[in-house]
Amino acid sequence: MVSIAFTGGGSGGHIYPGLAVASWLAKSFSCRIFWIGSNTGMDRAIVEGAGLEFMGIPTGKLRRYFSFKNFLDLFRIVAGFFSARSILKREKPALLFSKGGFVSVPPCGAAKSLGIPVFTHESDYSPGLATKINSRFAEKVFIPYRESLKFFSGPAGEKVKVSGNPIRQEFSNADPVKGRAFLGLGSDERILLVLGGSQGSREINDLINACLPDLTRIYTVVHQTGKDASDLSADKSAMMSDIAGHYKSYEYFRD
Fold first, then answer.
1. The whole model's pTM is what?
2. 207: containing domain
3. DSSP string covering the chain, please?
């Protein structure tokens, strides 16, 4: 049976679109799929939760600013390269599909060194540093928007294909009735859903918190805050009494 390797991680945005591709491949033909990701953080839980085999490697973060951590993480990136190379050499996948994030760079480099074809996908309008590095190793670089072509030039530009973003089947099969039941809201309730990514966004959280009194006059605000959400405000107790029942915060939505 042919094997296909996936890589990417560090946040849900680098994993979930890859899971959509993996799900489609698994349903389209008989293949074994495994994922190479960070041996720390959320990567393993999300991938194994989707029923895929997960193999962890050491990872270092790629920062565009000066930090002593860059020096330390350089050793982790090198260790990740050799760890990924060992996995790929042993498992012999037909190709490696990357969804980006700092964890994807060592596996992409390792695959290139072994002659394994690399394909990478960027979900954002502008490519991240990992995608720019991985484009050097890749056979094809998939991007979501035609307007994003301007970020790629030279040899990298010849590899680019506009594909859109992969969407998980759960979104096509979603049931609004179940969603409202989960939230405890009636069919006529107006809902404003706020998502700041799997890790949340402090800027979005602060903006929503500042606007809550106005927003909750019109909507029930359903807010995915992330794990390290900042406190609502110094006047939290007074404000919460005014918006009671019209603000629902959750650390993270899964199923």
1. 0.79
2. 175-250
3. --EEEEE--SSGGGTHHHHHHHHHHHHHS--EEEEEEESSSSHHHHHHHTT-EEEEE------SS--HHHHHHHHHHHHHHHHHHHHHHHH--SEEEE--SGGGHHHHHHHHHTT--EEEE--SSS--HHHHHHTTT-SEEEES-GGGGGG--THHHHHEEE------HHHHT--HHHHHHHHT--TT--EEEEE--TT--HHHHHHHHHHHHHHTTT-EEEEE--TTPPPS-TTHHHHHHHHTTSEEEES----
